[in-house]
Amino acid sequence: MPLALLALAIGAFGIGTTEFVIMGLLPEVAGDFHVSIPTAGYLVTGYALGVVLGAPLMTVLGTRISRKRMLMLLMGLFIAGNVLSALAPTFELMLAGRVVASLAHGAFFGIGSVVAADLVAPEKKAGAIAMMFTGLTVANVVGVPLGTFIGQTAGWRATFIIVAALGVLGLVGVAKLVPEQPKPEGVRIRHELAAFRNIQVLLAMAMTVLGFGGVFAAITYITPMMTDAAGFADSSVTWLLVLFGLGMVGGNLVGGKFADRALMPMLYISLGALALVLGLFTVTAHNKIAAAVTITLIGALGFATVPPLQKRVLDQASGAPTLASAVNIGAFNLGNALAAWLGGIVIAAGLGITAPNWVGAVLAASALALAVLSSALERRDVRRDSRIVAAGVPEPVAVPAGRS
Questions:
Q1: How would you classify residue 186: left for phi > 0, otherwise alpha for psi between -120 and 50, otherwise beta?
Q2: N or C: which end of the chain has fewer CB within 10 A?
Q3: DSSP H or E run through 162
Q4: Whole-angstrom distance, CA of residue 29 vs CA of residue 157
């Protein structure tokens, strides 16, 4: 794997840390700005919405410059947003800083996926994408717990200064290690938007929303689920999230490796197993050991879907992959928001603290159904094209004797 993938992974590490670390620092931020915890929660919601909106916006703005330069500009935007968050004198300015940082998220992963895939041979593309996303998964194992600890001991502002420094490291890495690629010729917004008329691109994005949404239906409510149902102490939740992060790292690497060999079978297995494990979590959530194992499996199976889904979008939008790739990153965050909302509904309906796991299982099973549908449509199109080609081949013409 090219060393340039390390630079992309470092950028992904910083982005992953800033996205999730705020969840562990909400009490400190709320207390500092004298706002309620629900109000502080807008820092999470605002970031997610910024990713969804920023992914296509920043990608469109970046069509006129080289991908390397755009990655550098995105890291600069990420640094500025985190510095603003760290120094913000008011809650409103901190929220603005979160939104500024989030604008870089989707486009960085979207453009970075295209760059990573272009750095390697065709049979290694999913593995290269997985290598970049390893930075995001490792952030949940190292960056988020460490950032939470620093924020709780040295102040939350110190955490965001460190995250900004990670952004500087990622920017330098991209500048030094990512090869200069010429600006893609003939790229037009209309051409990029045309990819969204492809039913296979839309199906892959729907799988992203539903499949990864299934993961967050459970993980969003992991703290009350583990303390109320499993009987863990509040302090144990951090280590349970580390187990979840370790599962993400392993699942991401395995998903990238096997997606290069058999992409759709990899999706069938990971989505089917994810639906099963999420359903079982309604039972295992009541036992400490079983719950810890299940949380690790959810992280592994959930992130095993990421490289194949991202590669699926790249393959199906091969003529105009950049915008589609970035929008698919926004689809992950849309799935997170949708699943968290649905999980909250079933809890509020009195179905129990473990009810979101059933929501997650249904979402993952729905993603599996879409994967089966996608393959069926693809096979139908191949058969149709084969018949068209066969019907268009002229019959051999006999040459009369005596003519050459």
A1: left
A2: C
A3: helix 156-177
A4: 9
Cα distance between residue 343 and residue 155, in whole Å: 31
Distance of CA 139 to the CA centre of its chain: 13
94 exposure class (CB count in 10 Å sphere: 0-12, 13-18, 19+): buried
pLDDT tens for each residue of 351-371: 888 998 999 999 999 999 999
- Mapped onto helix, strand or coil, the DSSP state of residue 219 is helix
Residue 121 token pair:
């041979």
Distance of alpha carbon 269 from alpha carbon 367, whole angstroms: 12
CA distance 81 to 313: 29
C-alpha–C-alpha distance, residues 143 and 335, integer Å: 23
As a whole number of angstroms, the distance between CA 16 and CA 375 comes to: 32
φ, ψ for residue 22, nearest 5 deg: -60, -30
> Cα angle vertex 125, ends 58, 241, to 5°?
70
The answer to whether 26 and 146 have CB atoms below 8 angstroms apart is: no
Dist. CA 36–CA 18, nearest whole Å: 21
pLDDT tens, position by position, 198-221: 888 899 899 999 998 898 888 878
